[in-house]
Design a protein that fits this description.
alpha/beta; Nucleotidyltransferase, domain 5; Hypothetical protein af1432; six-stranded mixed β-sheet; 48% helix; Ppx_GppA_N; hydrolase; Ppx_GppA_C; guanosine-5'-triphosphate,3'-diphosphate diphosphatase activity
């Protein structure tokens, strides 16, 4: 099934076509954007001009060609600030209905804020925070607690309207930027629930996306993906300083920046920095999911996922045809191994390590879906570079390192681009967790679930692992003897395996 939505914004118009994946989640298949800048056609006294209507209709007729090609009949079409604020909005809606396939639904300020909030909590694991969505003609902020919307506000400014009001040329002067900042700061200070909250800010929309992409470019960021990318105040200032040093012609050529946002990005960065300082934020995070996703989340429910991360792992299992029966049995074994090694103080392990190990068990060698021979390489690449809702980029790389473990050489190759992300001790622990997981998987090599339980004991310097089986265990014994060496090297002790047939 395919579904389409048209988002008529103040700066851009966009058609997005989604398709339901095997897991039932919606995946983006087509994304058609038009830089219409409809805000420029809204007069000071609030009338949307004839020329603006022509631009709007031209864009919608372009989208209509695409939706008819895909045979989409029920396309959602929503409009935000510019059409909402137009005094002749009823005429706009009527003319669009007469001349195109679409019926415009004008979102209220609350709806625009709510759908952005909904997209954030459905695609991240934050339980409390501030969201911001800078559009072309308005800026929505929300405060949520326990994943429920508590406060919202729609400010009467966006990146395009700020540029029109405060910036005479294509890039702001120091004085213009100072005046713009003072205005935005006054607006934010008017909301008591924003001030000094010391919470994460989760940003959605094209301006936030471009800020993140510029920062990743400046950092030579080693993995793909912008969803849940984290920045702090210094990072925002770094991006602003870089952009401020460029001419407008140079801004238009920045690879990480949309050309049609070249004259809007600096005002947008100023808004983000001002909000960060108003909130005294703990971090600034991008959500790639926004208003359009929120509308579909509401339609396809559940309205609020009980666990965003559980949904993500369910989706991975469906998309890569993971044998969940096999996984559940290995999970039981890996928990026994972990807990007994911790109780014997064989390796410094924590509860957080067990959480990571459990997650990695669900996606171990997931890359064999692509190619059996290079399953380790494919596993690392897929997990490190695929967006996993609910996981930060650092957590995603940790998961990839553990779930793809094959040997020390490949581990060092995988971790090399991230050597500044993890200390030597953390790298050693990740390698140990990977070795533990690989060993646990070897104990179910034939996928018959024959190992009932494990018992570890120390005999002087030797670790003895008793493995109690319900059926013949020759294949498991061979694989386990082969893979125990990775743990032996890290524990600096010999491991003796004793298989027992019981029952």
């Amino acid at each position: 099934m395919k579904y389409g939505i048209i988002d008529i914004g103040s700066n851009t118009m966009r058609l997005v076509i989604y398709e339901q994946s095997k897991s039932g989640r919606l995946r983006e298949r087509e994304n058609v954007k038009i830089a219409a800048r409809l805000r420029n056609y809204l007069t000071e006294d609030g009338w949307f001009t004839e020329e603006g209507l022509r631009v709007l209709l031209d864009g919608l007729l372009t989208f209509q060609d695409v939706t008819r090609f895909h045979r989409l009949h029920d396309v959602k079409c929503v409009a935000t600030a510019t059409i909402r604020q137009a005094r002749n909005r009823d005429d706009i809606v009527r003319i669009v209905a007469e001349r195109t396939d679409f019926r415009i639904r004008i979102l209220s300020e609350y709806e625009e804020a709510y759908y952005g909030f909904l997209a954030v909590i459905q695609s991240t694991s934050f339980h409390e925070g501030i969201t911001i969505d800078i559009g072309g003609g308005s800026t929505e902020v929300t405060y949520f607690y326990n994943r429920e919307l508590v406060d919202y506000h729609s400010f009467p400014f966006g990146a395009l309207s700020l540029k029109r009001e405060f910036v005479a040329g294509n890039v702001p002067t120091d004085e213009e930027l100072q005046t713009l900042r003072a205005y935005v700061e006054k607006q934010f200070q008017s909301l008591p629930w924003l001030k000094q909250r010391r919470l994460p800010i989760i940003a959605i929309g094209g301006s936030a996306r471009n800020v993140v992409q510029v920062h990743q470019m400046l950092q030579n960021y080693p993995i793909a993906g912008i969803h849940q990318y984290e920045m702090n105040r210094e990072h925002i200032v770094q991006v602003k300083k870089y952009l401020r040093a460029l001419t407008f012609e140079q801004l238009q050529k920045v690879e990480a920046l949309s050309k049609d946002r070249a004259d809007l990005i600096i005002p947008a960065v100023e808004v983000f920095q001002t909000l960060y300082e108003t909130v005294d934020a703990t971090m600034f995070i991008l959500s790639r999911k926004g208003l359009r996703d929120g509308i579909f989340y509401e339609q396809f429910g559940p309205i609020i996922f009980p666990s965003v991360l559980d949904e993500s792992f369910f989706e991975l299992a469906q998309d890569y045809e993971v044998n969940t029966n096999h996984v559940q049995h290995v999970l039981k074994l890996v928990i026994q191994l972990f807990e007994q090694m911790r109780s014997l103080s064989l390796f410094p392990l924590t509860g957080e390590d067990l959480v990571l190990l459990k997650r990695a068990t669900h996606v171990f060698y997931l890359g064999q879906y692509v190619d059996e021979e290079a399953s380790s390489q494919h596993t690392f690449y897929l997990l490190a570079n695929r967006t996993i809702d609910g996981l930060s980029h650092r957590d995603r790389v940790q998961l990839a390192l553990v779930a793809s473990f094959k040997n020390k050489t490949l581990f060092k190759q995988y971790v090399q681009p991230f050597h500044t992300w993890f200390t030597r001790a953390e790298q050693k622990k990740l390698r140990f967790l990977g070795a533990l997981l690989k060993f646990a998987y070897s104990l179910n090599d034939t996928k018959r679930n024959i190992v009932n339980r494990l018992q570890l004991e120390l005999q002087q310097e030797t670790i003895v692992i008793h493995i109690f089986c319900s059926q013949s265990f020759k294949a498991e014994e061979y694989q386990a003897e082969k893979h125990k060496k990775h743990m032996e090297k890290m524990l600096k002790r010999p491991i003796q395996l004793q298989f027992h047939l019981e029952g």
